[in-house]
Amino acid sequence: MSDWHVAQINVGTVLHPLDDPRMEGFVSRLDAVNALADRSPGFVWRLQTESGNATGIKTTADPLFIINMSVWASVEALFDFVYKSAHRTAMAGRRDWFAPPKGAYMALWWIRAGTLPTPEEGLARLAHLDANGATQQAFNFGRKFPPPDVAGGPEDMRPDPYCVGWR
């Protein structure tokens, strides 16, 4: 077992309040996507309230800004969930539900196994990625850094063929 897990944050600004009928396609998928994550190989933890998701956790004054965070045993396990599972089909609709991002909207970083990240830490890592590009502090699938105790430089996991994101 590794001494390290990977934490991730992804953020977005929804186009409408979550109770607006135009958000039904997003909201109706939340439980299924979260259940898929929970049973995916390598899944460790996800940020959630009693509702079972993180959409009610407000980190800014903008009521339309939402966050999602999780922890995985490896970057590869997270990559498989994001791009090679039914989660990918939910991402295909993001243009219908979210404003295009103005900067980095997803960041990864290493944490000691057994610890959990906070939303504040996640937002700080996202800001670091946005300001500095991918580094050991905060990275993405296109420039994945190894855990702190592993030698090596960044690796491109080549997400583009799978990406149904904002490109």
Protein traits:
167 residues, alpha+beta, Alpha-Beta Plaits, four-stranded antiparallel β-sheet, 6 helices, 4 strands, 17% strand
List the SSEs and their pairings.
Layout: E1 4-13, H1 24-27, H2 30-38, E2 43-46, E3 65-72, H3 75-84, H4 87-91, H5 94-97, E4 106-112, H6 119-132
Antiparallel strand pairs: 1-3, 1-4, 2-3
Question: What can you tell me about this protein's structure?
Answer:
- The protein is α+β, with helices and mostly antiparallel strands and 167 residues long.
- The protein has one domain (4-132): Alpha-Beta Plaits (2-Layer Sandwich), CATH 3.30.70.100.
- Helix content is 28%, strand content 17%.
- A four-stranded antiparallel sheet has the order 2-3-1-4.
- The longest helix has 14 residues, at 119-132.
- It is globular.
- The N and C termini lie far apart (35 Å).
Strands, total number = 4
Q: Which blocks of ≥5 consecutive residues have pLDDT under 50? A: none
CATH fold-level name: Alpha-Beta Plaits
Mean pLDDT: 92
**CATH class category label:** Alpha Beta
The helix fraction, in percent, is: 25-40%
Q: What topology, given as strand order, has the largest sheet?
A: 2-3-1-4
- Gyration radius, to the nearest Å? 15 Å
* Morphology call: globular
CATH architecture: 2-Layer Sandwich
Largest sheet: 4 strands, antiparallel
Q: Report the portion of residues in β strands.
A: 15-25%
Derived structural class: alpha+beta
End-to-end gap: 35 Å
The total number of structural domains is: 1
Note the run of SSEs as H and E.
EHHEEHHHEH
With helices defined by DSSP (H or I, 4 residues minimum), what is the helix count? 6
